[in-house]
From TrEMBL:
Keywords: ATP-binding, Nucleotide-binding, Transport. The keyword Transcription regulation does not apply. The lineage of its organism: Bacteria, Bacillati, Chloroflexota, Ktedonobacteria, Ktedonobacterales. GO terms for molecular function: ATP binding. Pfam families: ABC_tran. PANTHER family: ABC TRANSPORTER ATP-BINDING PROTEIN (PTHR42711), ABC TRANSPORTER ATP-BINDING PROTEIN NATA (PTHR42711:SF5). This is ABC transporter ATP-binding protein. Belongs to the ABC transporter superfamily. Residues 4-257 form the ABC transporter domain. InterPro entries: AAA+_ATPase (IPR003593), ABC_transporter-like_ATP-bd (IPR003439), ABC_transporter_ATP-binding (IPR050763), P-loop_NTPase (IPR027417).
Length: 355
C-alpha cells in the first residue's frame, strides 16, 4: 500500500538579485530584479510501506527540495503530495508525530547539551509515555552503541558519534517513515558502514520506510532496494537497485600502491598503458593511470570479479595499499543518459580495503 504519493510536484524559487556597487544597489532597491529557479519541475512517484528508496542525483538536482516538500518544510509551486494521508505543508504538525528526518549537514541535537538531554526534550515534544520512552531510549542506545558518550555535550562529539546520536534521536518516536538527506556525508569508511547497517537493521526489524539521498553509490547499493534518479528536477530513472547495479554501478576503480614499479606489470611500447599479465588482458579491465608505484584500474565487475584481478597482481607484486571506489554519482548519471562523463573519482566514495 502506498504511504507516499507524489504527483506532478514542482517548486520554483524566486529570489531577489543582489546588485554590486552603489549605483546598482540604489537601482535594485527602487526596481528590484528577481530570478526564478525551477528546483523541482515535475516529479511523480509512490512509495510503499517498508520500502527503502534511494533518491539520487547530482548536486542541485532537487533532492533536498523534494524532501523538504515531503516533510512540510516547504510548500510546492504545483502538484500534490500525500504522506501517510497528510498534506505535509498543511498538516505538518500532525505528520511530525509519524515521520522523522535527518539532514546530514544540519544537527537536530542541541549543540551545548549532551544527546541524552536532547532525547529527553524530544520525548516531551513528541508527548511520549515516559516509561515507554525510557525503554525505547535504552534500546536505541544499545543498538547505536552510544552509551559511552550519551552524556557528552554534542559539540564535543566526533562526526561519526554525532551522526549515530542523530539517528538514535530520529527513531525515538517510532516514526513510520524516515527521510535521510546525506546521512553518511563526511564520515569515514567504518562509520559509514555502521550507519548503513543500522538503517538496514531498523528497516528490517521495525519495517520503517526509508527515503535516502546520498552521493555515495555504496549507500545506495548496500541499503536501498529501489532507486529514483533525478536530474534538473525531473525523474530520469525509477528502477530496482539490482537493475541499477547491473546496468550502471558495475564499474569499480581499484587504486593500488605497489612496492615495485608499475612498468613490471605493463606491456612495453604501447601508447595506451596495457597490462602485460595474460590473465588480466581482459575487455572488462582498463588501465586508467600508471605512474611509478601507483596503478589505477577500472574493472567491469559483471564481466570480471574483483578478487581474481587483485589476486593475480598480488602474485607478481607486493601491494602496499589498495582502495576500491565507486564511480561518482555524476558519472552514473552521465551513463544513464548514455554518454560518459570525464568526472574525476570521488575521493569520499573510496573504501579502503588495506592500509
Ligand atoms: N531557498 C532557495 N532559494 C533559491 N534557490 C534554491 C533554494 N534552495 C535550493 N535552491 C536551488 O534549487 C536547486 C535544487 O537544490 P537542492 O538543494 O534541492 O538540490 P540537491 O539535489 O539536494 O543538491 P545537493 O546534492 O547539492 O544537496 C539548486 O539549484 C539550488 O541552488
Amino acid at each position: 500500500m502506498s504511504i507516499v504519493e507524489v504527483s506532478h510536484l514542482a517548486k520554483t524559487f524566486r529570489s531577489r538579485e543582489r546588485a554590486s556597487g552603489l549605483a546598482e544597489s540604489v537601482r535594485s532597491f527602487v526596481r528590484p530584479r528577481y530570478r526564478s529557479r525551477e528546483a523541482v519541475r515535475d516529479i511523480s512517484f509512490e512509495l510503499d510501506a517498508g520500502e527503502v528508496l534511494a533518491f539520487i542525483g547530482p548536486n542541485g538536482a532537487g533532492k533536498s527540495t523534494t524532501i523538504k516538500m515531503l516533510t512540510g518544510i516547504l510548500y510546492p509551486s504545483a502538484g500534490s503530495v500525500r504522506v501517510l494521508g497528510y498534506t505535509p505543508w498543511q498538516q505538518r504538525r500532525q505528520l511530525a508525530y509519524h515521520i522523522a528526518s535527518v539532514f546530514g549537514q544540519k544537527s537536530q541535537l542541541w549543540y551545548h547539551l549532551p544527546p541524552q538531554d536532547t532525547f529527553d526534550l524530544l520525548a516531551r515534544i513528541y508527548e511520549l509515555d515516559m516509561n515507554e520512552y525510557r525503554r525505547r531510549r535504552d534500546f536505541l542506545i544499545e543498538v547505536f552503541d552510544i552509551a559511552d558518550y550519551i552524556r557528552t555535550p554534542a559539540r564535543k562529539l566526533s562526526l561519526g558519534e554525532r551522526m549515530r546520536c542523530e539517528l538514535a534521536a530520529t527513531f525515538l518516536h517510532r516514526p513510520r517513515i524516515v527521510f535521510l538527506d546525506e546521512p553518511t556525508i563526511g564520515l569515514d569508511v567504518i562509520a559509514r558502514q555502521r550507519i548503513r547497517d543500522l538503517i538496514a537493521r531498523l528497516n528490517t526489524e521495525e519495517g520503517v520506510t526509508v527515503l535516502l539521498t546520498s552521493h555515495d553509490a555504496g549507500d545506495v547499493e548496500q541499503v536501498c532496494r529501489r532507486a529514483i534518479v533525478i536530474n534538473h528536477g525531473e525523474i530520469i530513472l525509477d528502477e530496482s537497485v539490482a537493475t541499477l547495479k547491473r546496468d550502471y554501478l558495475k564499474e569499480k576503480t581499484i587504486d593500488l600502491q605497489l612496492a615495485g614499479t608499475v612498468d613490471e606489470l605493463l606491456s612495453p611500447g604501447s601508447d595506451e598503458p596495457q597490462l602485460s599479465i595474460p590473465e588480466l588482458r581482459h575487455a572488462g579491465i582498463r588501465v586508467l593511470q600508471a605512474q611509478e608505484h601507483s596503478l589505477r584500474l577500472s574493472v567491469d565487475t559483471l564481466r570480471c570479479p574483483l578478487e581474481p584481478v587483485v589476486a593475480t597482481i598480488m602474485q607478481r607484486q607486493h601491494i602496499l595499499d589498495m582502495t576500491i571506489s565507486d564511480p561518482p554519482m555524476e558519472t552514473i548519471i552521465a551513463s544513464i543518459y548514455g554518454s560518459q562523463s570525464p568526472a574525476p573519482i570521488a575521493a569520499e566514495n573510496v573504501s579502503s580495503l588495506a592500509g
